[in-house]
Design a protein that fits this description.
6-stranded mixed β-sheet; 244 residues; 12 strands; Deoxyribonuclease I, Chain A; globular; alpha+beta; 6 helices
Length: 244
């Protein structure tokens, strides 16, 4: 199973100069991922829809899923007069259920954990994925990491395959020790000894995005830094291939 995670930046490039969602869709398709975890996905935006002729008539997550990922889930985090945005999961496997957990610590910065249960082909067991977007502020992230561990402990069976991925904003590498306590390991740390650098997209210096796992075996990792990714969004995506 291949998974890809990306902060979509609401479908705009790094300086918000171009609307690049159609290009992003082609780039995501080309990766051949079975499951895609997205952050900063617009569920709707009345102003942008009028300004950009290529603006889709459906929510961004549905536009990206198209006919490739037949199941998708959306967790709305932030709501404002023009629209709303949040996290999304696109899956080639049936999504049995999903729930968005609000972990916002302030009214100005809305954050969430989107938890999905996936039915995989037999004899594979049911898998769980959690799409994560955490705060820019370390004090808030510490509390959100605690809530993530509580979610994993209460809603995910101890023996179930689990992937937790997304934009952790953890540029100081503080998440690892916290998440180790709930049995999670980071894919790039396991393979390369350090988290992957994913931000900013043109010159990745900071390791903001992560892929944590439990009860799976990681067989391959990749940081997608080359074109077209370096000119889409403000983050570059990470991907992993796992065996159950």
């Amino acid at each position: 199973m291949k998974l890809l995670t990306l902060n979509l930046h609401k479908g705009f490039n790094i300086w918000n100069r171009r609307f690049v969602l159609p290009e992003l869709r082609e780039a995501v398709r080309a990766q051949g991922a079975d499951v895609v975890l997205l952050q900063e996905v617009l569920g709707g935006h009345a102003v942008h829809a009028l300004r950009h002729k290529e603006w889709p008539s459906v929510p961004q997550y549905e536009f990206l899923a198209d006919t490739i990922w037949k199941d998708f889930a959306y967790g709305r985090n932030a709501v404002y007069p023009a629209g709303h945005h949040g996290n999304a999961v696109l899956s080639k496997f049936p999504i049995v259920s999903y729930r968005n957990h609000d972990v916002s610590m302030s009214k100005s910065e809305r954050r969430g954990l989107l938890h999905c249960r996936l039915t995989l082909p037999e004899p594979a067991p049911e898998a769980h994925v959690v799409c994560v977007h955490l705060s820019l502020f370390e004090r808030e992230r510490r509390r959100q990491l605690g809530l993530l561990c509580r979610l994993v402990g209460s809603a995910v069976p101890a023996d179930a395959p689990l992937i937790v991925a997304g934009d952790f904003n953890d540029w100081r590498w503080r998440a690892g020790p916290v998440l180790q306590r709930c049995g999670l390991r980071e894919a790039f740390v396991e393979e390369h000894g350090r988290p992957a650098r994913s931000f900013p997209a043109r010159w990745p210096l900071l390791a903001l995005d992560r892929i944590y796992f439990r009860n799976v075996r990681v067989t391959r990792t990749a940081v997608h830094t080359r074109r077209p990714w370096s000119h889409l969004s403000d983050h570059v995506p990470l991907s992993v291939e796992v065996a159950l």
